[in-house]
Amino acid sequence: MRLLRSVIVFILLLSGSHVEPEELSSTLRGSGESRIFVDGFRDGRTLLVFAHQDDDLVWMMPFWPSSAKFVLAGYPASPVFERLVRSFPPELNYADRWSPAWGTIDDDVFAETFTDWCKRAPIVTLESITAHLRPYFTPDVRRVVTHNNWGEYGHVQHRIVNAAVRQLAVEMGLDVWALGTRVDARSADDQSAYTDVAQGLGLPTVEGYFDANLFRTIRQKYFEAIPAASTAELTQKFRQWSPTLWTWSAAEDAFPKEWRPFIALVSRGRDLTVGNAAVERLVEEVPLTNECTMPPVLPHR
């Protein structure tokens, strides 16, 4: 029943139809000042910017209905990714809103270069991601939903995408929102790994609902997407990176279920995380993962 209701809300929002507050609250909610923020997401001026193809589902799903565009920012797409997004239920209108910021490359090139942490490290940098994202930060954009400063569980490319988005948002006077949850990737199969930390950060907060049924419906499409290249060697390399296009835990409840806090990182161009001791402590405490032997260059605050 909730799956059907979620899909109906998605369709209404995408069609531009009026959505009553109680319908919008199927995915977002707030009270007081937070209610104003929630209502703002109805204007169709929100970008979803994520590092890797499955990241927007795992970390940003409540904002799918209200986002104008889904921007893949951490690597180029390849035909296997294009086929994946076209396989999503058409009523979600995902493929038409999806845009790989780096464009599309051959499956062989992806397998050879972008499945290797050290080969992609000098390519996927703060400077290159910022340059690829800049064209999407147009005057009609009001806000961005992206990764948090600590990269959810410390993923280095999540952090770089976060830094690029915050930098561009400051330049353009935009808002930036992200999941206010810290994740322990070592125990990602269990809900105890997804710890809400928003309350101690002193940042504006709204809540987003992760619908388990809809999540699992889309995740199944990832499970069915098997990467392949033109040679057995490259196909093996592709599948060593990930046997399917789902790169997070495949456990039944391996995602931040139900209502979760989302925090404002940037407000009208002012970076609220700069000088925020609680956020800086999280960045220090959450260890970097998925990096090459040389640590990435991140901006110093």
Topology (SSEs and partners):
Layout: H1 2-15, H2 21-24, E1 28-29, H3 33-40, E2 46-50, H4 55-60, E3 69-72, H5 79-86, H6 94-97, E4 98-100, H7 107-114, H8 117-120, H9 126-133, E5 143-146, H10 151-154, H11 156-172, E6 175-179, E7 181-183, E8 194-196, E9 205-210, H12 212-224, H13 232-241, E10 258-267, E11 270-271, H14 277-285
Parallel strand pairs: 2-3, 2-5, 3-4, 5-6
Antiparallel strand pairs: 1-9, 6-10, 7-8, 9-10, 10-11
Helix pairs in contact: 7-13, 9-11
Structure description:
Strand 2 (46-50), helix 4 (55-60) and strand 3 form a beta-alpha-beta unit. This protein is an alpha/beta fold and 301 residues long. The N and C termini lie far apart (46 Å). It has helices spanning 2-15, 21-24, 33-40, 55-60, 79-86, 94-97, 107-114, 117-120, 126-133, 151-154, 156-172, 212-224, 232-241, 277-285, and strands at 28-29, 46-50, 69-72, 98-100, 143-146, 175-179, 181-183, 194-196, 205-210, 258-267, 270-271. 39% of the residues lie in helices and 16% in strands. It has one domain. The model is unreliable at 11-24 (pLDDT under 50). The strands form two sheets. Strands 1, 2, 3, 4, 5, 6, 9, 10 and 11 form a nine-stranded mixed sheet that branches. It is built from 14 helices and eleven strands.
